[in-house]
Amino acid sequence: MDSRLMRQKLEARLAEDDRLFTYDRDKDQLRIESKSTGKGISIALPGVIAKWHSEKEKAIDEIVYYVQEGLRAMEDTTDLKNQLKKIFPVIRSASFPAEAEEGVPFLTEDHTAETKIYYAIDMGNTYRLIDTRIMKKEGWGESTIKEMALFNVRSLSTPVKEDQVAGNSFYFLNTNDGYDASRILNKGFLNEMEKKITGTMVLSVPHQDVLIIADIRNDRGYDVIAQMAMSFFASGRVPITALSFLYENGELEPIFILGKNK
Fold this sequence. Notes:
Layout: H1 3-14, E1 19-24, E2 29-34, E3 40-44, H2 45-55, H3 57-75, E4 87-93, E5 108-110, E6 115-122, E7 127-129, H4 132-138, H5 142-154, E8 161-165, E9 168-173, H6 187-194, E10 200-204, E11 211-216, H7 219-235, E12 244-248, E13 251-255
Antiparallel strand pairs: 1-2, 2-3, 4-6, 5-6, 6-7, 8-9, 9-11, 10-11, 10-12, 12-13
Helix pairs in contact: 1-3, 2-3
């Protein structure tokens, strides 16, 4: 698979009358743009090709889905006044872009050295990150959006599945609603889980669709959580960080775990 063939596959799957395709040879990027709005999404082809070699057509299905939903979201005329219950925080890597492609800053908040909080409007199959343009259009302030987002994430269910490995307990939250990692912001939930912990409480948000809470009781537990985090990070649709966090006194501290056992 090379860039030419990947371009042909993506263009065939994404072709519509209102869409324009352009290819940047220097960056090896394919841009899909809506003629009516002038907005679009650029895809770095090398990354898709690399994933295709391991996942084949699944990799193409995945990128097509996100481009389709992303373009629909751009065409949506969102009214925040009627969307208060649909505003949620989303966790992203600290290196995630701070602004939209058009140069409009997203609404963000610092979280840890590895992660940052963004804010989004849930739109069913996808969501739209809130930027300053939307805020200005609707007349909403930062504090209002952030307060509503935290209130809404606390209302989400928190079902966990437990697994025991080498004398350590691991709890997995994986509802696939797009906000599993966001539940790390639910202090009430974390404090309730902390009451169950008999060893050291370690958290991990390797990608947006999982939150791992570990009760580490021996050195082997650190190896296991490090391996889990790396595995989930490598396979996630929206990877966040392969590092884990100590949870003490309501605070998160990133930790680097050097695995010794395989």
